[in-house]
Design goal:
It contains seven helices and 13 strands. The protein is of the alpha/beta class and 240 residues long. The strands form three sheets. The protein has a six-stranded mixed beta sheet with strand order 1-2-3-4-5-6, with helices on one face. Strands 7-8-9-10-13 form a five-stranded mixed beta sheet. The protein has a two-stranded antiparallel sheet with strand order 11-12.
Length: 240
């Protein structure tokens, strides 16, 4: 772990990562809840920092896909903490979102996951998020609405650390960065504007929810290269 402030713990599951944030003393926050294997890790990491379930003050969801919210019902019951998410994500959390077009495959995968893995129980959102909301956790987190992957997809920006938790805006693995596969994007037409919004925010550090190593500078560099590749593809050929 490098190029990130203290107080971030990666909780790595089968499909991606969620994050445990702690500080000020005695307070912790979850960003997403994962799919398989995360509950045991969350309990263990809290114990490592002398914390328990009642120290978790909020469960923040970037969006409601099953690999991010599959354990939200467990986390809410275990900690008693409220769930914060954009209102458009309730149908995803409940498994009732009406996928259409290419993204119908996402719905099929989620239904299979619920049936086979016995995760993804519905849980109500307690606090609805909107773009620009200021949350009093981890020294302050601002909600950044980044729709496209889903209609209510959000990131969380720490001005104190100039760090954006960017959710599934992009994935960052092994010297590369890429957008989520088309079958997973329910509002793909909104992705370009969300990429531009993150670029204009211009955080020094970026931490997505799918990555290889926890390094905020590295992921920001990969994000910039992703944008550069997209711009080069749109550039008209030179006239000779």
């Amino acid at each position: 772990m490098k190029n990130v402030p203290p107080g971030i713990q990666t909780i790595r599951g089968v499909m991606g990562v969620c994050h445990l944030l702690w500080g000020p003393p005695g307070e912790a926050v979850l960003i997403d809840t994962g799919l398989i294997g995360e509950p045991a890790q969350i309990r263990w990491r809290l114990r490592q920092h002398g914390l328990g379930p009642r120290n978790v003050k909020a469960i923040l969801l970037t969006h409601g896909h099953i690999d991010h919210a599959g354990n939200v019902a467990w986390a809410k019951a275990w900690t008693g903490a409220p769930v914060y998410a954009h209102p458009a994500e309730q149908a995803h959390i409940d498994g009732t979102y009406p996928y259409t077009g290419t993204s119908r495959w996402c719905g099929r995968l989620e239904r299979a996951g619920r049936a086979v893995l016995r995760v993804g129980q519905p849980a109500p959102i307690d606090v609805f998020l909107a773009d620009g909301d200021e949350l009093p956790f981890w020294g302050g987190l601002r909600v950044v609405h980044l729709p496209g992957h889903t209609a209510g997809h959000c990131g969380f920006y720490s001005a104190r650390h100039d760090l954006l938790f960017s959710g599934d805006l992009f994935a960052s693995y092994f010297f590369n960065a890429h957008l989520p596969p088309p079958i997973l994007n329910s509002r793909p037409e909104l992705i370009p504007a969300s990429l531009e919004k993150a670029r204009q925010l211009n955080p020094r550090l970026m931490v997505p929810q799918h990555y290889d190593v926890l390094d905020g500078v590295l992921h920001r560099q990969r994000f910039d290269r992703l944008l550069a590749r997209r711009a080069a593809r749109r550039r008209p050929p030179a006239v000779i």
